Amino acid sequence: MSDALPYETDGGAGTRGRFGLIVLSTDETLEVEARAVLHRPGLALYHARIPAHALVTPDTLRLMEAQLPDTAGRLPAGLDAIGYACTSGATVIGPDRVRELVQSRHPATPVTNPITAVIAALQALNARRIALVTPYVAEVNAPIRAILRDHGIDTITVRSFEQKEDWTVARISEASTLAALTQAGQSGADAIFASCTNLRSFGILDEAERATGLPVVTSNQALLWHMSKVTGVTADNGGPGRLFAL
Questions:
Q1: Cα–Cα distance between 184 and 133 in angstroms, integer?
Q2: How far apart are CA 7 and CA 112, in angstroms?
Q3: Range of the domain at 89
Q4: Measured between alpha carbons, how far is 73 from 94 in angstroms, rounded to an integer?
Q5: What is the pLDDT of residues 68-106, one digit of tens each?
Q6: CA neighbours within 13 Å on the CB side: how many for 81?
Q7: Are residues 27 and 75 in the same domain?
Q8: What is the reported pTM?
Q9: Calpha distance 201→92 (Å, rounded)
């Protein structure tokens, strides 16, 4: 019988920052875009998948509320921040309720979500009148507009792909999103908000800002930016768009 090898311990992966994401089981975009920002030495990203319905409606979004504690519990302890990565889900369930449910398993960890992050981002950009671009149907857009309005942000125009099926949302081309953002930029808004973590945008976000002359905030961009802000951990090269320069 051999003797056990000697060893030392250190801080493990993520010596600069450890981030957790609760990702929808139907989402195919967030993790790809998150890696573009957090793929840096010393930064660690951990994911837990929450069961999500393939069709996005207020009723199906509410179903995730019951799943949040157990899903959060599958993330490792000692994270610097956790993001519940669903804009419409956080809006329908409520940001405070999301934080309460996640912190039931991670009491000391800061918790954010895309709608909270977007509100913080738009406030940081001094944007009070926005153009909204979404893949959602009207019944999902309505509570998003309402929560923005409650925080002093008026939605002056909405352009939507009117799609319920999340599988299809993940396959809306970035060229289509760029065209929608460019059109939205003609509305006289202070900024453009492209909602949904499953809607791809990182490849065209800078181009959209050049074309419109406006800051463009997306769900994934804002969530990653806000997680860095609440922890004080920043990626070396930031991310796309004006937001990461703040």
A1: 7
A2: 37
A3: 17-113+222-240
A4: 20
A5: 999 999 999 999 999 999 999 999 999 999 999 999 999
A6: 22
A7: yes
A8: 0.96
A9: 23
